Amino acid sequence: xxxxxxxxxxFYYETDKACMVLGDALKILTKISAESVDMIFADPxxxxxxxxxxxxSGKMVSVNKGSWDKLPKDGARNIEYKxxxxxxxxxxxxxxxxxxxxxxxxxxxxxxxxxxxxxxxxAFKIINNITWQKTNPPxxxxxxxxxxxxxxxxxxxxxxxxxxxxxxYQAMKELNGGKSVNAVFVVGGGGKVPGFTEKLAxxxxxxxxxxxxxxxxxxxNIDFIDESIKKDSLLVTPIGICLNxxxxxxxxxxxxxxxxxxxxxDNDKLTIMDAVMQADYPNDFLFPRRGKELEFYVxxxxxxxxxxVGDSAxxxxxxxxxxxxxxxxxxxxxxxxxxxxGEPAVCTLDSLPEYEDTIIFEVEKxxxxxxxxxxxxxxxxxxxxxxxxxxxxxFLDYYxxxxxxxxxxxxLDMVKLYxxxxxxxxxxxxxENFSLKWKELTGTYEDLLEIEExx
Length: 455
Description:
CATH architecture of the largest domain: 3-Layer(aba) Sandwich
Largest sheet: 5 strands, mixed
Strand order of the largest sheet: 12-11-17-15-16
Shape: flat
Number of helices: 9
Strand content: 25-35%
Helix content: 10-25%
Distance between the termini: 79 Å
CATH topology of the largest domain: Rossmann fold
Number of domains: 4
Number of strands: 27
CATH superfamily of the largest domain: Vaccinia Virus protein VP39
């Protein structure tokens, strides 16, 4: 493993056959020698960490995986950021991949289409688009679309005429029981139409050998009383319908959902989630709800503070606390106490990070550090001020001459105050690193003359 790195390094985990490197992939890829890797499997960020929630094992969990899976808060730039990121890491992968190497990338619809384009833009040729069917996809809580039950794997090689990727067809065939790995299976009598499989292969743009007509081999576990029956694809559909009917219970159960009697089809796998969906119970009432957010502006930029998170719904099955994945049976009584809304967002001026900012003046050749004044809707406010909806907050980057004098406990009636060596009025503004000095007034005719000259 060490030979692919340009310099010797310490591995996070190591065995005789494998090594694991822990760190930022974008940095690690730059440390690997050019054209030293045979195959890459990448599972890049899907960018789904948006502070939302999901259901996992019947419990509410956060979708956040880490800062590496988050998009910028500026939504308008999300597509540009995502695609730029994908091109960057794919470009680095191409540099370390051998001429005959290949790359496999898995992803969902959230990111895989950007990855496909990025591959072609970075001089890759896509070999296969593989659909990965999930046997246990997340529940379809929204009920507004099909269940997201698949991921896509893109297999690609360098788009060079001399590039020859490796594919062990014989090994694949052995793993498939000595048969070719077919892409399409035709089941039912329609497949008996002359030329059907050839035409299907032509329309799909694949070899005709990759379209298989399933017949007697799928009925190997069925005993026929009449042995004279011809066992071919014509029987597959009607027998399949019959078996499906007899294998199912085709019965219903009755339960009580929040006091209402409900009828559910019994498939031996019923859970509280099924009852929730049947009752059309609002999803918002299942998971914690946030209190009202607080929106305001700081130095002209919008800022939003989210409200507190409430409590999850309490689910009772026959009086006992359970979760959404708990199984249910005949006459069960389900009661759901809806989730609560958290407290509205609350924020004071002194809790904002800008409140700690300071401004430095030079007073009589000494550095003086002063806190910045905070203005809300044009009025100066103290740190304990509780921010209200749509407040316009400004942390001032200046003092007036009068404010400086008050901070230094100087009576302006008794002195002449100079800002950057120029005589200042009380309302003159003093910015960062401005110099200040003063001269006491004696009330003499000479002082009056000097004041007039400075002006």
